[in-house]
Amino acid sequence: MKKISRIILISGVSRGIGNALALRFLSENSIVFGISRKKILKKNQLYNQKNFYHLKGNICDLNFLKKSRDIIKRKYSKLDVVILNAAILGEMKIIKESNLKTWKKVIETNLISNFFIISIFYDLINKSTSGRIISLTSTAAWKIRKFWSSYSSSKAGLEVFIKILIKENYNKNLKINFIDPGRVRTDMRAKAAPKENPRKNLPPEKILDKFMFLASNKCKFSGKIFKAQNK
């Protein structure tokens, strides 16, 4: 019987990069708790996977996150890896034409919810002897482009928030880093660049090696921004 390697929490596992990460960790004999609003359907490879626990709910919902923490605490009492993956794109419109509710939802999903996750799960990740937090970032955090106001603002805010968390972290066993996936063949990318040929971009399962490194005991540093792809 193989020894369980790590206990992982990933937000946004119903599709895309989060789904691919969950499958990769499961293949390496980890326990994966995966958050998503959508149900995991039979056609999804995560369906009925051994060692996968689906936490169905909204990451903006504090009560849901607290219940999820309590589930993990009862089963395993700690987390080894937290991956802040879930995000939404919002509208691709100029600021004066942006929908206020949609803009607010992007900030809540991409920034505020990650503050909730860190706050609520921090004690569990601190109990690990080799805790890892990986935050997905993007060139949108610093590259100034028209139509990207809500998404770019949320990603810039998240990057600053995580950098402050790194400054405030005194646990030498906890390493906190960023990863930029780049252009990946996902639904979000298709929405952001509808004229782009998706076949020119790698599928999520092909960009995971650096994620796995940052989640491993081999990672001995914090505060680095890694590019998932070499291009």
SS content category: alpha/beta
- Give unreliable regions as ranges: none
Query: Taking Cα atoms only, what radius of gyration do you get, to the nearest Å?
Result: 17 Å
Q: Any idea what the CATH superfamily is called?
A: NAD(P)-binding Rossmann-like Domain
CATH class: Alpha Beta
Reading side by side through the largest sheet, how are the strands ordered?
A: 3-2-1-4-5-6-7
Structure description:
The protein is globular and about 50 Å long. By secondary structure, the protein is of the alpha/beta class. The chain has a single domain (7-227), classed as NAD(P)-binding Rossmann-like Domain (Rossmann fold), CATH 3.40.50. α3 links the parallel β4 (81-84) and β5 (132-136). α2 (62-75) packs parallel to α3 and α3 (100-126) runs parallel beside α4. It has a seven-stranded parallel β-sheet with strand order 3-2-1-4-5-6-7, sandwiched between helices. It has six helices and seven strands.
Task: State the main characteristics.
single chain, 6 helices, Rossmann fold, 7 strands, about 230 residues, alpha/beta
In short:
This protein is α/β, with parallel strands linked by helices. It contains 6 helices and 7 strands, in the order E-H-E-E-H-E-H-E-H-E-H-H-E. It has helices at 16-27, 62-75, 100-126, 149-168, 187-192, 209-215, and strands at 7-11, 31-36, 52-56, 81-84, 132-136, 175-180, 225-227.
